[in-house]
User: Which sequence fits this backbone?
């Protein structure tokens, strides 16, 4: 007969996979949320930053030009789209289509983050114009690089690498096993040879036996 330990063993195995699956989905959700927020920061800071005296190229607030469009607004749109795609694929991480979507989102985030980092230097090389970042003190240049280029780019690259690594692993999260709650049938011991031969074992003799009848003896004359 099955003991209580065997039933609790099934229940224990069922409860092990649930926290791991919840932690994996929570991590992907946070990665997607961070990707959306940091992309929005990288896209809006050239327009909103000058309002509190934080301008890397010396332009005024809400000034729209080609440099802001190519170096900030375009990668921000791609990064936000990648973050939303990660958030949309988080509930179905077990399915193959969701893993493909996570891989695509990771690649987009990697591309957007990489362009945030190399964009200011590529802008000067491709267009042959002056530097995107205006000359300033070393501390000011470091602050501009962290807020405009390196900060959003490296964080977005990390988010894309996490999503891409999750999709490439192809590991199915553990699925919860339903616990056995019904009554367990008792085990019966049956002789294997008797079962195979199709012979029914003889019944044991009954405790109450009928006494044998006495023979009829004819009476003498």
Assistant:
């Amino acid at each position: 007969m099955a003991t209580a330990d065997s039933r609790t063993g099934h229940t224990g195995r069922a409860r092990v996979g649930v926290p791991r699956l919840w932690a994996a989905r929570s991590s992907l959700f946070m990665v997607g949320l961070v990707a959306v927020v940091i992309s929005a920061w990288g896209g809006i800071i050239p327009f909103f930053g000058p309002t509190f005296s934080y301008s890397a190229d010396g332009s005024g607030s809400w000034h729209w030009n080609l440099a802001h469009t190519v170096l900030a607004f375009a990668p921000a749109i791609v990064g936000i789209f990648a973050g939303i795609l990660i958030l949309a694929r988080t509930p179905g991480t077990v399915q193959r289509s969701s893993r493909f979507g996570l891989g695509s989102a990771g690649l987009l985030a990697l591309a957007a983050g990489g362009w945030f980092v190399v964009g200011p230097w590529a802008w000067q090389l491709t267009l042959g114009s002056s530097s995107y970042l205006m000359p300033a003190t070393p501390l000011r240049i470091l602050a501009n690089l962290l807020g405009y280029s390196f900060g959003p780019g490296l964080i977005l690259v990390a988010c894309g690498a996490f999503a891409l690594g999750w999709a490439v692993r192809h590991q199915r999260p553990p699925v919860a096993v339903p616990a056995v709650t019904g009554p367990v049938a008792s085990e019966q011991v049956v002789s294997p040879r008797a079962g195979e031969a199709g012979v029914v074992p003889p019944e044991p003799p009954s405790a109450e036996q009928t006494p044998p009848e006495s023979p009829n003896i004819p009476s003498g004359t």
